[in-house]
Amino acid sequence: MAETAAPPTQISPPTREVVTCQNCGRMLVGEFCHGCGQTSAVHRSFLKELTDIFRNIVNLDSRTFRTVLNLFFRPGKLTRDFVYGKRVGFLPPFTLFVASVFFLFTYYSLLVGPTYFAAKHYTKQELLTEAHYDVMQAQETLSLSRQRLQKLSQATKDGQKPSATREVLRATSEVATDEIRVSQAQQRLARIQALPDSKITATGDPLGISYIYKGQDLLGNGTQDILFEIDAIAASITAETGNATEPEPVRLARHTVEILFQDNHPATFWDKSAQLISLFAPSGFHVETPWPALNERVNPNLKDPKAFVKKFAASAHSFAILIVPASLPFICLLLAWRRDTKLYDHVVFTLYASAFLVLVFIGFTILAHWIAWADLLDYLFFVCVIHLFFHLKHAYALRYATAFGLTAAFGLIFAPFAILLFFSSVVFLTAI
């Protein structure tokens, strides 16, 4: 009898443990919950938590680095990609801008002080070039003033202008002043020729206004030389009008120079600003707005210029976020002819552009600890203009000529108003 074949053994599928999300209770299919995004690898390990923290920091840093790198070298593509939805792996513009402002605030609060910025350095050849130019200019001015005096004297002798006595006196005063200028320029040239060939440092002057070396003013931009020019103007006015009383603008100019160039190293830029405001407005300022409650809050803070400047110095860099609302209206106005763009596009562009300005300013501030601002300002201006040009061109897909025209229009027309609006806002908020 034939044996019957045994029926095939049915292999039952392995039982799969149902795992639910600890956060929302949904069944997990895969590593992450499709509802809330929480991972299935829930742990209660401190070591694992430290590992996750380190991983998040590394991921944030890489994302930040990628965003900053694109902001510096491909700003238009970064802006355009974000506007049209390519946002994975990049910081949002507002986040980047706020982070850069926070870093600026922290850096200035902790590290920047009165002695932070480096002084300007010059070579002997640079000083000689300036000194030769000053001598040539002084000699040309003296020659012209002598010719004018000769013509006026001859006209007075011939009786053609009997009423020109005051003009002759004024011209005589100008000739005497110009002769002193030539003598001073020649003396400075001789002092510079006797200097060593090594680099020369202008003490305590990051912007390169003064050229002081071992207590000597080398190129005539110090206090005594500027006061001499003010006195020369006052003498010319006196000779012309016959009034010996010193005009008020001359007095204010003299005191302004004395404040700006006072040899007081502990006095910071803000200290001198407070003294200048006190000079021109001894009783402070008074504003009237349509809101009486606002007037009562603002005016007491404006009565004491020194206290207000101190408050402004302490809080000015914390208002850097106002760069965006101060610039956005002008960007919208500049590109109002583009019908294919929306307000959102301009906001993203302005945020990324403002973040770049803050980051570049931070970078140049760090360099200013070793290199004077006088050597950095031209590069700062060049970097900002070039970046704005390429940012506009690629963010809005413009032609080269159009991008160049918009960059020039913003730099020459809109930027001054934006800067004025920014500082006005900072002053107003500080006063509040």
Could you explain how this protein is built, in words?
The chain is mainly alpha-helical. The protein contains 14 helices and four strands. The protein has helices at 46-73, 75-83, 93-110, 124-157, 165-193, 223-241, 248-260, 269-280, 292-302, 305-315, 323-334, 343-367, 373-395, 400-431, and strands at 120-122, 200-202, 212-213, 216-217. The strands form two sheets. The protein has a two-stranded antiparallel sheet with strand order 1-2. The protein has a two-stranded antiparallel sheet with strand order 3-4. Helix 8 runs antiparallel to helix 10 (305-315). The radius of gyration is 34 Å and the shape is elongated. The model has no long low-confidence stretch (mean pLDDT 78).
Summarize the structure.
This protein has 14 helices and four strands.
List keywords for this structure.
mainly alpha, elongated, 64% helix, 4 strands, 432 residues
| Gyration radius over CA | 34 Å
Provide the structure class.
Answer: mainly alpha
Low-confidence stretches: none
The shape is elongated
Spell out the blueprint of helices and strands.
Layout: H1 46-73, H2 75-83, H3 93-110, E1 120-122, H4 124-157, H5 165-193, E2 200-202, E3 212-213, E4 216-217, H6 223-241, H7 248-260, H8 269-280, H9 292-302, H10 305-315, H11 323-334, H12 343-367, H13 373-395, H14 400-431
Antiparallel strand pairs: 1-2, 3-4
Helix pairs in contact: 1-2, 2-12, 2-13, 3-12, 4-5, 5-6, 6-7, 7-8, 8-10, 10-14, 11-12, 11-14, 12-13, 13-14
